[in-house]
Structures are given as structure tokens and as C-alpha cells.
UniProtKB/TrEMBL annotation:
Organism: Acinetobacter gyllenbergii CIP 110306 = MTCC 11365
Annotated transmembrane regions: 21-41, 61-87, 94-112, 170-189
GO cellular component: plasma membrane
Localization: Cell membrane
Coiled-coil segments: none
Family the UniProt entry places it in: Belongs to the DoxX family.
Domain of life: Bacteria
Keywords of this entry: Cell membrane, Membrane, Transmembrane, Transmembrane helix
PANTHER family noted in UniProt: DOXX FAMILY PROTEIN (PTHR33452:SF19), OXIDOREDUCTASE CATD-RELATED (PTHR33452)
Topology of the protein relative to the lipid bilayer: Multi-pass membrane protein
Protein's UniProt keywords contain Transmembrane helix: yes
One Pfam family named in its UniProt record: DoxX
Protein name in the entry: DoxX family protein
InterPro entries: DoxX (IPR032808), DoxX-like_oxidoreductase (IPR051907)
């Protein structure tokens, strides 16, 4: 039994040793996933900045946030800077913090009233009343399109869905950013890692 446990332990240690050079893949994958999301969000805000300011500040049809110009500028800057820095793997842990703040603001002010699901699916867990009511609406929309539209052509790129705009995606991005705070930029295509190596050699 002892020999078996010793052999198993040795095999496990060998696997860990072989995988040690892959410890930066997770961080790189998270960065690559998040970069286009924040770049698109930031550039969209920048190109329609006045509309963004109005949406941030209007309490009737917008978010009703105080200091909408400042808030819009901060959100836009965080997302654009975040996309650039995550691409470079530079200041990864630090830039993740303001990006988490933007996700928290989005969750509380935009998505939370809609529940969990981003895409309405009455059969999924956490389906609230809004999601359950979407089934009838979606069925009615399909009937209209089948009778009066080119349904096969319209659905050739994918099925029709109802956007519920819940917190699902924003929470997912926030969890990924929390992971980057722990992992950092990783060892691959990361200026953080390169700078750390240079400093270590300089101090040694």
C-alpha cells in the first residue's frame, strides 16, 4: 500500500512539474476573452459620448447617476484602458479593480432588476416572472414570422431569443477579473511578467 501511494504521489508530482510552464495559460485566456468585450463597450461609449452622458444622468429613462459627465468619462476610460492594458498584460491586477467597479455599477443600476439570466429561458434555473412571461411572447413572435416573414432565412444564423439583460454576463466578467487579480497577467505575452523577471535579475 505504501509503495502504491508513493508511486501515485511521484506521478502526481511529475504531472505538476510538467504543467508548471502552462501556469500562465489561464491568465492569458482570461485576458484574451475580456479584451474585445471592454474594447467594444468603451469605444461604443466614446463614439456616442453625449448619449452616454444623458443615459447615465437621466432618471426617467436612464440610470439617474450623479455627476453623469464624470461617471461616463470614468467608465469609458476604464474600459478602453482596460482593453489596452489587458492586451499588453501590463498592470493587470491594478486595472482589474476599476473594471470590477464598472461591473458592479452595471449590475446594480442596469441588470439587477431583470434577475439572473442574460437570455430569457423559462426552462432554466433562476427563471423569474419576467423570464417566464417571455415564453408566450417569443411563441407569438415566431408565429408572426412564420406567417408573414421568411422564417427559414431569418433563423439561418441562429434561433430567435428574447434578451432578458440580467446580471449573468456582468457577474461572469467580474469573476474573471477577480481571477486576474489573483493570477496577474501570467507568463505569456505579458509585460507584467517580463518586468518582474527584469527586476528580479537586477536585484539578484
Amino acid at each position: 500500500m505504501k509503495n502504491f501511494l508513493y508511486t501515485l504521489t511521484q506521478q502526481y508530482q511529475n504531472i505538476c512539474s510538467a504543467l508548471k510552464h502552462a501556469d500562465g495559460i489561464a491568465a492569458l485566456a482570461l485576458r484574451c476573452y475580456l479584451v474585445p468585450i471592454f474594447w467594444m463597450a468603451g469605444t461604443n461609449k466614446l463614439m456616442h459620448f453625449q448619449d452616454t452622458v444623458q443615459w447615465f444622468g437621466n432618471s426617467d429613462w436612464g440610470l439617474g447617476l450623479p455627476f453623469p459627465h464624470i461617471m461616463a468619462a470614468l467608465a469609458t476610460s476604464a474600459e478602453l484602458a482596460g482593453a489596452v492594458l489587458l492586451t499588453l498584460g501590463l498592470l493587470t491586477r491594478w486595472i482589474s479593480i476599476p473594471l470590477i467597479v464598472t461591473m458592479l455599477v452595471a449590475i446594480v443600476t442596469v441588470h439587477l432588476p431583470n434577475g439572473w439570466q442574460a437570455i430569457a429561458d423559462p426552462n432554466a434555473p433562476f427563471a423569474n416572472q419576467q423570464v417566464l412571461a417571455s415564453a408566450e411572447k417569443l411563441e407569438a413572435a415566431r408565429g408572426i414570422l412564420e406567417n408573414y416573414g421568411h422564417y427559414d432565412w431569418l433563423t439561418s444564423s441562429g434561433s430567435f431569443v428574447i434578451l432578458n439583460n440580467g446580471i449573468e454576463f456582468a457577474v461572469t466578467y467580474m469573476i474573471m477579473l477577480l481571477a486576474l487579480i489573483v493570477l496577474g497577467g501570467g507568463r505569456y505575452f505579458s509585460l507584467d511578467y517580463w518586468i518582474k523577471q527584469k527586476i528580479s535579475k537586477w536585484l539578484s
